[in-house]
């Protein structure tokens, strides 16, 4: 990453780079990156990529950050299979390179030509500050799961599982964030939040949006909520 003037970032891109530099020392992020490497997945360079995500005239982003699926050794194979104008492949475990379930949208294909985790520099000010490092941990859980299991990202049960884990392990469902979202019911708060956010993410997936997402999340919930890897306890 280029050295940037930390006091006076000149633009969104520099601001985003400073943001990433300041967050990658978070112990949860360090642990996830180490575990991904330990499992033998080679991290692309740069792994965290600041990029504009808003399309012309668009004010509401489709995502604030996203993991580009198949970012490890399979990335080039997946790209080769997806020639321009071809239909997305969703078989053989080598589906198209696309963003993670919660953030997937065909309009964002221009962001997906390189592997790694995209941080949307043009919406970071608006959406990134409150929950920022949790966003990175969320995407890293998807990366970890992709490395661990060679995921089929057209399989809605697998997507539901990684979304449950990402919501449960990222810290985005801590009570302080839930209250800021207007959810004040403390009883069962963590599970309710994880269930709600995983379902929402699944509904945004192009492969799963026409299916009964609540039912899929329910089916996967207990097993995936209990799966804390690579942490020993819920961070
Ligand atoms: Zn997600």
TrEMBL record:
Entry GO MF terms: metal ion binding; metalloendopeptidase activity
Coiled-coil ranges (or none): none
Family that this chain belongs to: Belongs to the peptidase M76 family.
A single BP term in Gene Ontology: mitochondrial protein processing
The name this protein goes by in its record: Mitochondrial inner membrane protease ATP23
One Pfam family linked to the record: Peptidase_M76
This enzyme's EC code(s): 3.4.24.-
A Gene Ontology cellular-component term: mitochondrion
Key words, A-Z: Hydrolase, Metal-binding, Metalloprotease, Protease
First-tier enzyme category under EC: hydrolase
């Amino acid at each position: 990453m280029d050295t940037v003037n930390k006091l006076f970032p000149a633009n969104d891109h520099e601001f985003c780079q400073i943001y990433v530099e300041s967050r990658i020392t978070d112990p949860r992020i360090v642990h996830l990156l180490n575990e991904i490497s330990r499992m033998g997945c080679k991290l692309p360079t740069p792994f965290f990529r600041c990029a504009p995500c808003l399309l012309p005239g668009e004010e509401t982003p489709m995502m604030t950050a996203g993991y580009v699926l198949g970012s490890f050794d399979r990335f080039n194979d997946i790209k080769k299979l997806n020639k321009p104008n071809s239909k997305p492949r969703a078989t053989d475990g080598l589906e198209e390179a696309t963003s993670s379930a919660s953030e997937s949208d065909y309009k964002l294909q221009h962001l997906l030509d390189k592997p790694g985790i995209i941080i949307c520099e043009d919406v970071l000010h608006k959406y990134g500050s409150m929950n920022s490092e949790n966003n990175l941990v969320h995407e890293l859980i998807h990366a970890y799961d992709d490395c661990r299991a060679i995921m089929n990202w057209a399989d809605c049960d697998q997507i539901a599982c990684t979304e449950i884990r990402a919501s449960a392990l990222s810290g985005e469902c801590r009570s302080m964030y839930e209250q800021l979202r207007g959810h004040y019911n403390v009883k069962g708060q963590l599970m309710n939040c994880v269930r709600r956010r995983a379902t929402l993410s699944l509904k945004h997936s192009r492969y799963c949006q026409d299916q009964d997402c609540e039912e899929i999340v329910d089916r996967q919930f207990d097993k995936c909520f209990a799966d804390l890897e690579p942490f020993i306890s819920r961070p």
